[in-house]
Design a protein that fits this description.
The structure is a single chain. By secondary structure, the protein is of the alpha/beta class. It contains twelve helices and 14 strands. It is 41% helix and 16% strand. Helix 1 crosses helix 2 and helix 8 packs parallel to helix 9. The longest helix is centred in the C-terminal third of the chain and has 17 residues, at 296-312.
Length: 365
Amino acid sequence: MPTMADVARSAGVSVATVSHVLNGTRPVLPHTRQAVLDAVEELGYTPNTLARSLVTSRTRSIGLAVSAISNPYFTEILQGVEAAVLEHGYSLLIADPHDDPEHERKVVQLLHERRVDGLIVAPSADPRALLAYLGRHAVPTVLLDRVIGGADTAPPFDQVCAENTAPMARLVTHLAGLGHRRIGLVAGLPGLSTTGERITGYRQGLSTAGLALDDDLIAPGNSESTGAEQATAALLSLAAPPTALVTANNAMTIGALRTLRARGLSVPDDIALCCFDDFAWADLFSPRLTAIAQPSRELGAEAVRVLLERLAAPDRPAGTLRLPCAFVHRTSCGCREKDGVADTPSAPRTSSTPRKGPSRDRRRR
């Protein structure tokens, strides 16, 4: 089996230079780096990761703990994390905390016991045990998607997330501009920062549009499909039901659509729909879903970048990085489509056509 010394001889460099190339511990001239990589390939050299970790106290591995890996949003985040990890010569260990605080702490402890160099974690709605463990053991950590603390307090760890408040407000003001006066929100799991920020955005959107807040129009969907089915049914059962719905994540969009279909309601003819989270098949629905698109892969890649910066500078202050979202204008909101692009009407939309079931003649209430 070839050794690092064999690689050094073949490339015509020192063993230290080979080490710097393979471990990324010091900049190396491009032609020298390429000569080392060519020698590695030609000789079939495989670094002894275990031996290297004993010497450096680093395993060049990162732990990722995110719930609902089957959710397309987190799947895209995972893709961003994995690509960035591999690009920097690290390996990735993955665990699913299932949004359960006790299980969350256990899986994070297991990842830590595997001697990962750092962790990327999407915290649960009650992360107290998680934060206590990470703080007690001084584990380099980046909190992903969900943040801890408010805007006026220093975060306990680095945080990478998307903007939530302004994009949600954009959906609400868009629907209000189409003439809707009763806009329902299928909200996420209580306790998550994303849930709180999106509810704040919903309220801000109503205020901007000059609409009164009716707390009955906010129903918890608990960030999952089944909960959203129940929340949508509850909203439709109100004495004055909403004429438009906003769902606060992609799983809840599916649940809301199931309930609307079960009630025989058509989107957007009977009820308009906008959703937070775009996903691959949102453009294939009929009508096509108007949505807020989060920069999922970029969030994953940025979390890795921030974690590597933390490993390089352990004593720097923790910070929060927020990435912007995009408003994806399609037709489930009730806008017409012109040349494949949603076209916002110049005046609020009204309708003299009777509406089905519980949504009849409610647009102006």
